[in-house]
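Subject: sequence -> structure tokens, single chain

Hey, anyone have a minute? Need the predicted structure for the following. Not urgent.
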Amino acid sequence: MSVVEHLTGDAMIRLLPRMPRSDAEAWAGPLARAADEYHIDTEGRLSMWLANLCHESAGFTRLDENLNYSAERLAQVWPRRYAVDPRAIHKRPNELAHRLAGKPDALANDVYANRMGNGPPATGDGWRFRGRYPVQLTGRENYTLAEVSTGLDLLTDPDVHLRDLDAMARISGWFWWYRGLEVHADAGDFGSVVKLWNGGTIGLDDRIAWHKRALDALGIA
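Reply:
Had a minute. Here:
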């Protein structure tokens, strides 16, 4: 029995107990097909892939990045950009933070401008290519690479795929493959998988907790 065959509706219900059973079950087929396509086919690969997807999407409930921040929260999350004094213990929001608070599209166009293949704020790239899908794919460059590899149209209207579980699962599988994460999963190096996934160790404790849940849900603990 291939390890991917452990990725059943019952396994997804065990992994996502707070999600309606029908919704959890609906993810099983698309994720299993994506895992098979992108060779996420060992215990380590599958459990680490699912763990990080669960962290990024809050257990497959957040498929579109929430950028509706208060000024105070902006100063905490991006102090170098939005705090009066980034080094202060109690960070006060600067004028820019107050202008962008409660404006998700304007915030995305500012914070994601001129990086990850995005153009300046006026292009709207930051908002158009904000984090989406369980993997939270972000930036024009990543969307373009994923489109070329998967054959999915990700540049015209990325929101279309938020209604397509198969597409979202394939994009999430592609990301794992593109980052070459199987090498580290095969070595049992979860920390390196996390670092290559998001460039750091943000949310590491939560990802570790999801990893244990994934192993238990798949029956391979």
